[in-house]
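[job 4417] fold queue: 2 targets
>>> target A
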Amino acid sequence: MNLREAQLAARTQLAHTESPVRDAELLLLHILGITKAQLLIAPKRELTSAEFAAYQALLARRAAHEPVQYITGMQEFYGLPFRVTPATLIPRPETELLVESVLAQIPQHHAVRIADVGTGTGCIAIALAVHLPYAHVTALDLSDAALSVARENAAINHVKKRVMPLHSDLLSSVAGQAFDVVVSNPPYVPFSDRSTLAPQVRDFEPETALYAGEDGLEIYRRLIPQAYKALHPGGLLALEIGYGQDAALRSLLSEWNEVTILNDLQGIPRTILAKRR
């Protein structure tokens, strides 16, 4: 079977999944260790029996709804490569708005201290460190497995000297320290919404990175007061929020200044910014 035929068969095998065409191609590129351009140049190249068997094994995992990112072990975020494992939430395009919103508030040449709460892969912390060359970022997480991934990603993206992964329940491990920015993409899915999630999210991504009580606001209620204590006067709090949570977050931030909500590309309120009085 040649590469073109293998892809067509794979698309059929993955027809019940969210993106069969893309996934069939990504998994084939992963198995062969080639680029998309190389694939386009030689569509009639024959797969070896070993390559075909390996491809079929990965297709079976994807057909069972395992995310492609966990199968390949990589995901791009903000133009940067990130290692991902089942211990971490998969970085999502909509979270890039959170990074953009912080970068828009902080001059590139400023030496700022940033705390990234619930860092996971470290994608937010690392993207900020890459684009703010004088920033020092403390990347906080309860999961030691996630912190290990974040350390690896800081090295991959050449910012390990300015990104410090640290075990912490929210900001507890840095109590008494002061920051210019606190940023977080916390768990915000109501547990009652579990059944509505896509299988690749519900059955594979870590529950501790997804769910936040019955209304999805549990982490915000704890984090916002901690962030107020941790920030310098005028310091920035930047949070990703879930669908329909903007009014509740405005209420939780009633003691803050300059509360601003930003919509994602679908017009959904996705990021909220506020400054400490």
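>>> target B
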Amino acid sequence: MRDVLLLLPDFLLIVVGFLVCRYTVLNRPIWESTEKLVYHLLFPVLLFDSIVRNPLDPAEAAALGGAGLATVTVGIVLAYGLKYWRGADPLLHASGAQVAFRFNSYIALAMAERLGGAAGVAQMALLVAVCVPLCNAGAVLPLARHGGHHLGRELLRNPLIVSTLAGLLANLAGLTFPEPVGTTMQRIGQAALPLGLMAVGAGLQLGGLKASPSLAAALLALRHAVLPASALAIGLAMALPALQLTMLVAFAAMPTASSCYVLAARMGGNGPFVAGLVTVSTLLGMLTLPAWIAVRLWAG
């Protein structure tokens, strides 16, 4: 119950976004613009600022980052394997595979603060920094192959990859900013979480899942069952410290990224199918995320 209450305020922001979009003049076109603002500016600044503000311990970063990369790799391999699912439509698979291993960074950082305070945010920011490039490369590859896009160009244009790599380089170089600049970046980043969570709610829709319910179920099972279980096993095998293990399992149990829809639509994929997956994943996360945190605490 305690974990559910910790998560409740952030999930209520998702509900607020849904209600505002459906029942006020602030309808879908406004939230589409908000998604672009968050995706291209607010969230990249948040990632960059979070990474720069938290010095990285090489040994700690290697262990936790390695566990995160191993977890994401499990997801990518299994998601790609669903390409051979009987009757799987190539376009639907290319569009939806990313849902199985990408994660909602807005919720991840918000949850990290509630579960672990500043130390939790720093560790989750590390996981985000290390795993976002791999997740986005894994997401772009099937769509680029299917739609004839240039993979390298798409990766270089991805604002989350650019901001995380820039943050890591700045951190390792010991770069600091004057207080007015640092405060400005921090305030821009703070706007990303509430707007990002409300934008997730505004985009909730289910109809597209009718295209392939079995593929959708398989992808969601990977996202909400297989990946958290893999993260727990990997973290225990690596004997990660308690807070790191909690952050790793929470990271793996996150709902999928709301930007999955943006990426699929921009690269010629099946947008409605991905929107349905994002919607169900977000709703499932309200139940499975607290459950996996409880499992992690039980496991010791």
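[job 4417] complete. Note on B: The first helix runs from residue 2 to 23.
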